[in-house]
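User: Sequence recovery, please. Input:
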């Protein structure tokens, strides 16, 4: 398996330069994973398939679904793609590379684990800020137009929110300067996670049935159903930040994140 991945990677770095892979390649990979994982939930909702697993009885209209797709394409090409291009020098400066040899699975898994923990921590506080009255009304309410979320609504948001909360996703890789293959794998997993959290279905095979701290669709669907000042469930992936309330626990979490940051940097 390792030789197959290495051969495929050798082909990529032989035919494309770093900029093309890091910017255009990342954008193409993101769009492919996002729409291929999110579109099926539109068809499930329209056809009534798997309805016994649907969390809410209410369905979105075809017009609302089409509006979501149209705006997503606009935001992706006019916001996401330029951000990928502009952030390329930062990632290169921090040590991102695409050359061989590929990092070991230990390095990849350690860094991605760190990214998930840090992203969830940063996202939680950013999300809470967006639920303050003024920011909710003028920015975050766009994302909450869909009280019954479906997979693609995961990235349906005001451009300012895309930039603001997008920081939570890129801060980990920006700090550690990973290999591009690690960055790609992190992006794929993060997209799949957020699409699943917004899919509107709770399946027997959902990760939240097996991982105690994983939020999943039930956790985030509840957030979309309630008013902005009372919703709770602000985390992106896990639930621990929503359970933490006092300052001592916050300090323990910060120390834990610092240890993870040191470990992730040392395994490069």
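Assistant: Recovered sequence (268 residues):
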């Amino acid at each position: 398996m390792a030789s197959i991945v290495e051969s495929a990677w050798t082909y990529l770095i032989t035919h494309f330069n770093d900029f093309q892979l890091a910017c255009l390649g990342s954008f193409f990979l993101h769009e492919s994973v996002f729409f291929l994982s999110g579109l099926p939930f539109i068809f499930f909702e329209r056809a009534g398939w798997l309805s016994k697993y649907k969390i809410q009885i209410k369905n979105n209209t075809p017009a609302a679904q089409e509006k979501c797709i149209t705006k997503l394409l606009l935001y992706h090409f006019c916001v996401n793609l330029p951000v990928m291009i502009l952030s390329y020098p930062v990632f290169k400066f921090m040590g991102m590379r695409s050359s061989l040899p590929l990092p070991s699975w230990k390095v990849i898994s350690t860094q991605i684990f760190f990214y998930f923990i840090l992203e969830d921590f940063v996202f939680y506080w950013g999300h809470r800020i967006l639920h303050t009255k003024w920011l909710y009304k003028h920015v975050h309410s766009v994302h909450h137009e869909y009280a019954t979320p479906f997979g693609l609504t995961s990235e349906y948001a005001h451009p300012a929110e895309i930039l603001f909360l997008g920081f939570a996703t890129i801060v980990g890789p920006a700090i550690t300067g990973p290999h591009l293959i690690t960055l790609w794998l992190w992006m794929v997993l993060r997209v799949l996670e957020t699409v699943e959290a917004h899919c509107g279905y709770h399946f027997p095979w959902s990760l939240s049935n097996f991982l105690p701290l994983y939020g999943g669709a039930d956790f985030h669907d509840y957030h979309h159903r309630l008013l902005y000042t009372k919703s709770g469930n602000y985390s992106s992936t896990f639930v621990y930040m929503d359970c933490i309330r006092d300052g001592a626990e916050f300090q323990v979490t910060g120390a834990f994140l610092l240890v993870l940051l040191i470990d992730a940097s040392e395994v490069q």
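The chain has one domain: 2-266.
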